Input
Amino acid sequence: MDSRTSRNLVQIDANFDLKLAQLAVHHLLNSEDICIFAQDLKNGTSAFGSHGAEKIYGYSSEEFRNDPLLWKKLIHSEDVSIADKVSLTDPPPIRTEYRIIRKDGQVRWVANSLYPQLDDKGRPISLTGITIDITKYQQRLRSMAFTDFLTQLPNRHQFDEDISTALNEALEYDDQTAIIYVDFDGFKRFNDKYGHQFGDDVLRHIAKLLREFENVRTRIYRLSGDEFAFIVRHVSDIDEVRKLAEGLLSKFRASIEIAKTPLEIRCSIGVALYPDHGGDVATLLRNADVAMYSAKEEGGHRYREYSERIQTMDEKARLVEWLRKGVTDQEFELHYQPKIDTLTGKVRGAEALIRWRSKEHQRVVPPNEFIPLAEESGLIRDIGTWVLETACQQNKMWQDSGFPPLCMCVNVSMVQLEDPEFLDVVQRVLKNTGLDPQYLELEVTESVLVKNMERTSFIIDQLMSLGIRTAVDDFGVGYSSFHYLAHLHVKTLKLDRSFVQDLTTSPSVARIVPAIIQMAHALHMKVVAEGVEQKEQLDILKGIQCDQVQGFLFSRPQTQEKFQEYLLDAHEERFNIITSAVQ
Ligand code: C2E
Ligand code: CA
Ligand code: CA
Output
């Protein structure tokens, strides 16, 4: 190249050594990963003007000359749209990056800078540009994105990619893949005690130790913080995985010295095997996690394989935790359902029914879903006391604001009744709220009454001496026996919804219910029919002297405000409309 051309081409400083400039251009033209090109858009010819074109694409300059659109044909099919989007009227340089497929089939990444020349109408007539092979940089970027900086282990992204591949392989070869989650117990204390720098050293050391367990089928990943995982491919025998887990535990059993500080590093390990413990990536990961948490809960520094039993235990533990949080965060509220005098239509009382507005569940959880768990975990004592306090306080407030006095019915569970402090709690609540005991009724289910007759009989009598009445709830579901009722001082019998439901359809139920009511009356008990939904049911109940009714026909359980509106509303008139419509 003569010096004039190079001066024009690169517009070098007049004082610059021309020899040096020539050298620079020479290197550019001979570079292996850069090439310059030109294209005449009018007659469709193109030329790759430097040695690099052949190196990058694997095609000679002659081949490019013979096929002016060859460069386009070499673009990776997934990246064609990138080249298609280019508008040559955009201000130069126009930059693109895409993959190409070389003559030998290798994939390369290239970056282009395009400089179109436009005619006086602004239409592109020719094009010059530079192409650079950036494969190396792309690979480095990719490896940075897939490597954990601190430990240099492959990271979560790599794990996600590899586990999918491993499962596909296992499916294809009809064998198993194992995930081994390793979580270090109480790792936070290293950071807290010795600082983050030290914590990082510990993690690096841990990574080094974990690497020792790698082989052609086993790879270790750092997922986050102190959480690591192995993927073991082509597992033919679970014993192989167990040995690895045991090996890990014994490796970390001995104390480890880091920066002259001896440390006790302990880990909990969870194992899940594809396909037995999960047929897809998400299930398998969740179950390995569940197994790991189970190992932690059992005291740590052990390994657990996933099993159905662990799953139910874990779910239960989580729900109890949520429930406990619900108690501290006061996520409960009471709804009230009226109890109505069958003859007059007047509201006689209200049943308080608990609702759990759970943040974790993100919905209102009905009592049947959580009361059994609250009983099992003992949380029902706190919950029950709160229900009692809130219901009594509410009742007193209604009375103080001039509503006719109502009887507030509160459900009490077995666990509460068995609690030696139960009577004290009830007394304290009445004292604190100032509610007259005659306006409180405690509902106990038939099954609870029967279970421990001696104890319940004692409690009922104690409650009675305090002026508080007791009702037998869900009568008819279980024993339906008057024998025990005759011995208990229960004041109210709540006829279960199932009886009310069958009242209009089953002739035998239609015969039994009046008999139950008569017997209850003979024992000086009042009868409340639950779950009244139809006018026909109300009509029958009225005819057989059932004292009170409760059900969706009158009102669903509702918030305190709504219940208050209901009391203010002309509910008696509504009741009369309902009943007269039946007659
Ligand atoms: P329960 O004591 O038998 O309460 C009556 C249930 O029947 C309530 O369900 C109520 O909403 C529903 N119900 C009322 N009228 C009708 C109707 O016409 N049709 C139908 N299909 N259902 C009707 P909820 O509120 O879901 O309560 C379920 C159970 O949870 C209660 O049964 C009670 O055993 C328990 N429970 C509720 N609140 C508490 C509480 O504060 N403490 C305790 N220990 N248990 C509670
Ligand atoms: Ca009840
Ligand atoms: Ca009931």
Summary: Residues 351, 411, 443, 473 surround calcium ion (ligand 2) (CB under 6 Å).
